[in-house]
Write a structure and sequence with these properties.
Blueprint lengths: L11 H8 L7 H31 L6 H24 L11 H34 L9 H24 L19 H38 L12 H29 L7 H26 L1 H16 L2 H9 L15 H14 L1
Helix pairs in contact: 2-3, 2-8, 2-9, 3-4, 3-8, 4-5, 4-6, 4-7, 6-7, 7-8, 8-9, 9-10
Length: 354
């Protein structure tokens, strides 16, 4: 029954009927999507757990950049959980959901996307600050990094909750979108446009950073007899995060465009058929990120291998030791030898200031 022209007590079947015929996948296609999606989700959960574990256990990663990278992996981990929940609450199950259950399903996806986007923006700013000071790592304290991480998740949770807080079409059926039947079209326009603006801003930041590093490197090389070791310049970390950003933009831009078209009420776009494809692209993005970390960062890949070995045959103490410690010579004292991260940091500063 409607209450004050609102329909809070209706099931999702009511709203699907209002926006038109729902696109139904045949059984073969649905099973294929669920099998492929489940495989991807398992990989997402395991791989991103390993990224977080690598940052925690390896002291060489105890820098603001890697803490933020671990937080990005945490948002991908949440995305994996959201995809699993979505896959088992879609298809014929979707119309049977209550409004609250639908908001929860979509909210999980929105929170993970917002967290990924916010993390990438914070990482972009961290890279900009460090590179403009010509340092490999910024001077952000752990307290400030922690506050940034809390801020990222606070904003993400709020953004995911916005539709359930009132920006929806439950009391205005004529403004309902096609892809998300209880979401207002105006909200989809806001969501897609704001995200694309952030995309453009981040790309501009990294293009500026990359151009600055290239110019600075060329200047340093012209004043030194030997070429700079590129592994010891900020450009290595920049390439890693640029690859992550590129994958994010490629995988999410089509979905944002489809959402924008839905918000603009494009009746000839056949948006419902694109919905499953957009979801698979989104899943692919969370699959790609751990692969990019391990491919672009040799130290990360080495830590992954150590973790896998230790999980198979080590105790908890042995896992920590094998993942972090380098073998010491007989004449070396572990208590007086500086951590590998400090040695590398010292070498980095020397090479950058030369």
């Amino acid at each position: 029954m409607a209450q004050d022209n609102c329909y809070y007590n209706e099931s999702m079947q009511f709203f699907y009927d209002k926006v038109g015929k729902r696109e139904v996948l045949n059984s073969t296609m649905l099973i294929t999507v669920q099998v492929v999606g489940s495989t991807f989700c398992i990989f997402i959960l395991v791989a991103n757990s390993m990224v977080i574990a690598a940052v925690i256990t390896n002291k060489r990663f105890h820098y603001p950049f890697y803490y933020l990278l671990a937080n990005l992996a945490a948002s991908d981990f949440l995305a994996g959980i959201a995809y699993v929940y979505l896959m088992f609450n879609t298809g014929d199950v979707s119309p049977t959901l209550s409004i609250r259950e639908y908001f929860f399903r979509q909210g999980l996806l929105d929170v993970s996307l917002s967290a990924s986007l916010a993390n990438l923006l914070v990482i972009a700013l961290e890279r900009y600050i460090s590179v403009m000071n010509w340092k490999v790592h910024s001077n952000l304290t752990k307290r400030r990094v922690t506050l940034l991480i809390v801020l990222v998740w606070s904003i993400s949770i709020f953004m995911g909750a916005v539709p359930s807080l009132g920006w929806n079409c439950i009391c205005s059926l004529e403004s309902c979108s096609v892809m998300a039947p209880i979401f207002s079209r105006s909200y989809l326009i806001f969501w897609s446009v704001s995200n694309m603006i952030i995309f453009v801003a981040m790309v501009a930041i990294y293009m500026r950073i990359y151009a600055y590093v290239k110019r600075k490197t060329t200047m340093l090389m012209s004043h030194t007899s030997s070429s700079l070791n590129r592994k010891r310049t900020p450009i290595k970390l920049i390439k890693t995060v640029m690859a992550v950003l590129g994958a994010f933009v490629i995988c999410w831009t089509p979905g944002l465009i489809v959402m924008l078209l839905d918000g603009l009420k494009c009746e000839d776009c056949n948006l419902k058929k694109l919905k499953s494809l957009m979801l698979l692209l989104a899943v692919a993005n969370s699959v790609m990120n751990p692969c990019i970390y391990s491919y672009k960062d040799e130290e990360m890949w080495t830590t992954f291998k150590n973790l896998m070995r230790c999980i198979g045959n080590g105790t908890r103490r042995q896992r920590s030791t094998r993942a972090n410690a380098k073998p010491l010579g007989s004449s070396q004292d572990a208590s007086t030898t500086p951590p590998a991260s400090e040695e590398r940091k010292s070498d980095d500063n020397e090479s950058l200031d030369s």
